[in-house]
Specification:
two-stranded antiparallel ribbon, alpha+beta, 3-stranded antiparallel beta sheet, Outer Surface Protein A, domain 3, elongated
Length: about 250
């Protein structure tokens, strides 16, 4: 007699493959479950990637969702995570074609979804820097908000996403080129914003663990611009902690 685990595995296999035998339920009933699984999976993707769906249309999106589901079936009871690999799938599936940019649009939409499920941390204000000696400031490391996601693309995906918050948005001119920005959880939802290249680079350096001075050297900011960048970081409540980096 098959164990419960074996029965569960056979049922799961039958949900993915119509040709797989299933001793648990008749084929017609399994087909109903299978259709529900596919529909729920596609619905989760539609919820996570609404702009991408709008740009490609329902029919093409359904085709992409079907092929993605074949390659990356859900492995979690929480369908929120169904789209975790969608951008990578699109990057491979659409590589070198006119729709290759859709992978980066998906990456941006997934960053937004990822930010949405991370709790807000209490922000730290600029006055916290006064707790360090002047000679220590260049060695201060920043802890940024845990929901902050930094995204860059050679395509204008931020412009595409922002334009498509309105119905019947026209296509965005791809010649606008590269863009970079962030997604961040706020008390009233998730913010998505474009960032200037030097601001993006500085925040990225901080996120990788560089100290204030190291990030300044990496990005080539001068003093006045550094003041503006730090003003933005603190003013937008991106900073969740400050600590002195160990020095030799």
């Amino acid at each position: 007699m098959a164990s419960l685990r074996e029965l569960q595995r056979s049922f799961a296999a039958a949900l993915r493959d119509p040709a797989a035998p299933c001793p648990v339920a008749p084929a017609a009933r399994v087909a109903i479950y299978r259709n529900n699984v596919v529909a729920n999976f596609r619905g989760a993707l539609e919820s996570s990637f609404p702009v991408l769906r709008r740009r490609v249309g329902d029919e093409f999106f359904a085709q992409l969702a079907h092929r993605y589901h074949e390659r990356f079936p859900s492995r979690s009871g929480d369908l929120h995570w169904a789209g975790r690999d969608f951008a990578d799938f699109l990057a491979a599936h659409l590589a070198d074609g006119e729709y290759a940019w859709l992978a980066d649009l998906a990456r941006l939409e997934w960053a937004r979804e990822d930010s949405a499920v991370v709790a807000l941390a209490p922000p730290v204000g600029a006055e916290a820097l006064s707790g360090f000696l002047p000679e220590q400031l260049e060695h201060v490391r920043f802890t940024l908000q845990p929901s902050l996601r930094l995204v860059e693309s050679p395509y204008p995906v931020f412009s595409v996403w922002l334009a498509n918050q309105a119905e019947n948005a026209p296509p965005v001119d791809q010649s606008r080129g590269s863009e970079q920005g962030m997604t961040l959880a706020r008390a009233d939802g998730v913010e998505l914003a474009r960032l200037e290249p030097d601001l993006f680079s500085y925040l990225s350096a901080l996120a990788r663990g560089s100290s204030l001075g190291e990030a300044m050297a990496l990005t080539g900011l001068d003093g006045p611009r550094l003041t503006q960048v730090l003003g933005y970081a603190f003013g937008e409540e991106l900073v969740a902690g400050l600590a002195l980096a160990p020095t030799s």
